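Why should sequence recovery work at all? Because a backbone constrains its sequence more than one might expect. Tight turns favour small or flexible residues, buried strands favour hydrophobic ones, and helices have their own preferences. The token representation captures these environments compactly. In the example below, the structure is given first.
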């Protein structure tokens, strides 16, 4: 599809989740015209046709909100949870939040491009958030810097940015940091079972550093250490969601769980330090949405568990992903902005 010059135009970013789509608009200077969440139902559980209609409504809504004419839109950035190809073809085995068989192997990028009549640039949601964190942190120096982002949510997403560009790999699965195997010696207690991941691996980063890891692996073990804990009487799925709030209040069980998660991320970043040697490490997800004291404590613990050489420690930084609830849509928009600005 022909890409029109960006002059006096804008780019729309769409971050698609299981229940909602967040939309944003960025102009040619890189200025975001939206400073809050602009959410509409994603309708992904109703199948591709309903979801594409919903995405079109998201575009219309954010343009109306910003007083922007559709004719000014030069491209759309789209992100979804993976797994998917680099070009936006969802996994043939199903992707996160895209459970209906109609989604298996579905080319969501091309379908949205046809629906809107505009160029669409695709990234998975972890890569989009990683790109936004990178650009927000480095600003004008972003094209000359590299970074690694770990996004701790239901799973563990992430992204690798090199010279300001998302590293996607041959099949679009680069940056799947959650499925990197990490050393477990010293992370687990002597009697703690090897954690299992939903992907089928055992002992990968996501099996520890994720909400699913808390529910399946960490909390059941820690409750054996604290049998009288109030969470012992709560269904495990509900109990797992309460751990962060307890961690904010300094609960010993919760802090023990988050210490293990911080260690897992530190070991993951240690691998990255010896593989890509990035300028920055970013942490996002639920910990960013927590109280300031807790999220600062967590980031400090991740830093403490990341083993860097003296030269690396002087040259790199650790930071939280900013504006996390908007990071995906903003990163998706920035990726599309890169297309039309070249």
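From this structural description, the recovered sequence reads:
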């Amino acid at each position: 599809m022909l890409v029109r010059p960006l002059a006096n135009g804008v780019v729309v970013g769409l971050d698609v989740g299981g229940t909602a789509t967040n939309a944003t608009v960025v102009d040619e200077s890189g200025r975001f015209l939206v400073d809050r969440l602009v959410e509409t139902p994603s309708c992904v559980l109703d199948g591709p046709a309903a979801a594409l209609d919903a995405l079109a409504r998201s575009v219309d809504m954010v343009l109306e909100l910003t007083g922007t004419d559709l004719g000014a839109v030069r491209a759309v950035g789209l992100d979804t949870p993976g797994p998917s190809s680099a070009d936006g073809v969802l996994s043939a085995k199903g992707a996160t939040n895209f459970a209906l068989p109609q989604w298996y192997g579905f080319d969501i990028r091309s379908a949205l491009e046809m629906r809107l009549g505009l160029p669409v640039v695709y990234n998975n949601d972890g890569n989009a958030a990683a790109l936004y964190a990178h650009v927000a942190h480095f600003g004008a120096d972003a094209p000359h810097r590299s970074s690694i982002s770990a996004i701790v949510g239901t799973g563990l997403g992430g992204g690798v940015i090199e010279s300001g560009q998302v590293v996607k790999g041959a099949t679009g699965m680069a940056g799947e940091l959650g499925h990197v195997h990490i050393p477990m010696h010293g992370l687990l207690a002597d009697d703690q079972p090897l954690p299992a991941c939903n992907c089928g691996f055992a002992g990968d980063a996501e099996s520890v550093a994720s909400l699913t890891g808390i529910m399946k692996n960490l909390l059941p073990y820690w409750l054996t250490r604290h049998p009288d804990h109030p969470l012992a009487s709560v269904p495990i799925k509900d109990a797992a969601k309460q751990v962060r709030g307890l961690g904010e209040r300094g609960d010993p069980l919760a802090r023990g769980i988050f210490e293990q998660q911080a260690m897992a991320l530190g070991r993951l970043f240690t691998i990255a330090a010896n593989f890509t040697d990035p300028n920055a490490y970013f942490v996002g997800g639920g910990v960013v949405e927590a109280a300031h004291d807790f999220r600062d404590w967590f980031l400090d613990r991740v830093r403490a568990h990341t083993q860097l050489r003296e030269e690396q420690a002087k040259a790199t930084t650790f930071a939280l992903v900013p504006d996390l609830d908007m990071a995906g849509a903003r990163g998706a928009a920035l990726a599309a902005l890169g297309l039309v600005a070249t």
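A few observations help interpret the result. The first strand starts at residue 10 and ends at 16.
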